[in-house]
Write a structure and sequence with these properties.
Length: 398
Amino acid sequence: MTSKIVNWKQNLNVLWFGNFIAGIGFSCIGPFIALFIGQLGHYSDTQTSLYSGMAFAAPFVIKMIVSPLWGYLADKYGRKPMLLRASLGMAIVIGAMSLVTNVWQLIILRLLQGVFSGFISNANALIAAETPTEHIGQASGKLSTGNVSGTLIGPMVGGVVAELFGYRYTFVITGVAMLSAFILTIFFVHENFTPVKNQSNQKQPHFLSGIDTAPILLGMFLTTLFVQATNNSISPILSLYVKQLDPTSHNIALVSGIIQALNGVAMILVAPIFGRLGDRIGSHKILMFGVLFSMLPFFITIFVQNVWQLGAMRLLVGISDAALLPAVQALLATYSPKERISQVFSWNQSFQAAGNVSGPMIGSAVVLIGGYRGVFVATTLIALVNFLCLNKNTKTIK
């Protein structure tokens, strides 16, 4: 029994680091992508904006499409091989971005980065499969902080490294860190995997077919999409909103990076607490609390008058995320059939990627209609829709 405890905790620590680096890898380019593209050629402002949008969205769009494939292969051949594929592939691709000489090379490599996705979903699936049931909430809580914190802190890390060493070194450092995650996974992640054998003439079922808990799983997918959409809706306008709140500031980029990183800080500090509480009282109760609580800072942000108030509200959003995201992972782990658990987590990653893409699009569109404050009206309404959907899809949970 002791070795089992040591193994799942060791797996959790190594995969937390890998999730954190993967999150940074997908988001660190954000603060300087337009500036970097400007160095790759002589482009007009319109062209730069277009290429920046393509480069930013490319990995998320591809990840949304290919994640279910990697989930199917993980259930067939094991999660650890998929972790190694994803971490090594991302290390090579992200490192290669430091060598690009034109914008199309960068866009192609960003597309390949999406192809080599799957580390996060398979880390979640492996932890769910290998962790004792009584510790699922705690483990999910800690693991989810890795990806979300990396994604939210990534823009600040990328901005600082680019400022100190240059844009290209950001890719080098991130690639090396991902390579270290690959090496650690080889030696320190252990999996007890037994593939499910199907009859040769048996058709592979749809991943939700025949599952009594399918409504619960679908509810978790939608929650993931809504949470990512609301979190990322502010991304395109954050620096502009900060400038509007503090027009005399000379450190708009730094202040914006810090405010965006506050979500991740709150996640790291609070998510394990909610995870342990979910193991005791039920993760679905934590989830419902998180959705209701998220509406409060979204709504109050409509009325903030300075950057300190904005930062305080983003910190509260991070606390709500700390309740939401670990609870989703724990419920997916609890209500997924073991033989299809990687497919379930991979589909959840597809919905996450859809939220990452749709959030900024929603934010940009709403600004045209209702200004910067209108974005937070929209996120409050999205959170309300999320709550109503969850209330319907989790009625069977006792």
